[in-house]
Amino acid sequence: MHQKHLLFLAVLAALSGHALAAEESSVPPGSDGPALKGTGQTIPESDVYDLLTKSETTLSALYYGRDRQEKQPNNSNGGDIRVNALNLGLNFKSGYAWDKLGFDAAAHASLRLSKGIGFSEVLYHDYNDVSDPAEGGGGRDKSDAVLSQAALKFRQNPDGQGFSARAGYTPISIGAMGTSGGLQSHSYRGVEAKYKIGDFELGYGWADQFRNEWDNRFRDMTNSWEQGRSNGSNPGKIKYVNSIGFRYAPENAFVDIGFGEGKDYRRTAQIAGSYTWKLSGGDTLTSVGYYFQGKDEAPLGLKNSQTASHASASITYATGGLSLMAGLGKSRNPDGGEVNFRLTPYGNSDNRNFIQTWGQDDDFVWDGTRVMKLGVSYDFSKQGLPGFSVGASGNYATGLKNPNGAPDSKAHEIDLSASYSVQSGWLKGASIGVYPAWYRSGDFYGKKDRNDVKVIASYSKTF
């Protein structure tokens, strides 16, 4: 089965990638194309054949390794994650015929390199395969290949001003809808439309299906976290999700506002903003603020209708290669525990990328959480070592609510990072990073202590 998937990717690459870039047009350069049907006119090559001659194909390879050990009762591995995976990607972006119409397509294969444990969120996860008890009993990660994007696109003007749209199987990033993912972006079956005037942009997104990175196909949206994929699940269907968004992004600043709805399930609203001050000597001071709120709706809402909110802000001072960051955050969800930023219960179908106080092992958005974050990073380019960078951050949280009147908990996390990106030569753009993390939750019911390390290496080439 996996050989067929890889053959599928290879054929698609040959048809839409650098093979197209190397192929000579059937119409000599500078000549007219074939006659426009029903007229005596011809189609200029520079209009129609821009679809191919101005296309781009990106081939990517990404290794992801993770070893997370979670403290569980009786020393079980119920919360552990061990994964070694290779992701091979192909992303084709056409040019625009008549400077207006084009199409994009993407595919990727996620390959499990060794036996693992747990739900990695980077491999296809079969919830119903519990054949190996050593994997934690919650299903198994497996290798797979998918056609992850296939969309038509339109633009009114080459400079991005005016109206633009995408429709099909596509990422959408408007207002409260987003497609943040892991190794490859999640996608919707839907449409996004935007209108831009100068630094102002108004957009709308709509979708009725969604594919997580850990799924092998697009599925209808439901009020079930696992999307109705496990045995015995009886989810209610969410007919669609949609969002309207407004963005104003002048130089050194932005304001982003969004309102979203998962039909008969929940409504959300959010606002984010940032401003960067340019200081003497090239130093900068950047502030970011974010506020989110969401509420479940009948009849598809959870048993206890959740009314949730989150606010966080940060300020970062950068001088030379050094960056210093401080952030504060607060979350509330008395009916559901952890704040859900999504328009559905599952997947990353949201635009929560503005959270300022997250950590590698926890977003620190449980009910009652008040969190402080401090971080430092350094780029060694100024020291004659371009491409090398290191970082460290710490989160300290109080007020995490426990059930049944139990005392509130405290939690803290320390994250480290070290990375290198090749700056020149045929491997330019290749990178590798190591990301250790330690999370301690005390007596908090919602999450246990964790030791975690990730290794991520990537390389891509665009033709």
Automatic annotation (TrEMBL):
Q: Name one GO molecular function term.
A: porin activity
Where would one find the signal peptide in this protein? Answer: 1-21
Which InterPro entries does the record match to this protein?
Answer: OM_porin_bac, Porin_dom_sf
Q: Where is this region: Disordered?
A: 23-42
Entry GO terms, CC: membrane
Enumerate the UniProt keywords alphabetically: Signal, Transport
Is Transport found in the keyword set? Answer: yes
Q: Which Pfam families match?
A: OprD
Q: What does the similarity note say?
A: Belongs to the outer membrane porin (Opr) (TC 1.B.25) family.
> What is the name attached to this protein's record?
Outer membrane porin, OprD family
Source species: Chromobacterium violaceum (strain ATCC 12472 / DSM 30191 / JCM 1249 / CCUG 213 / NBRC 12614 / NCIMB 9131 / NCTC 9757 / MK)
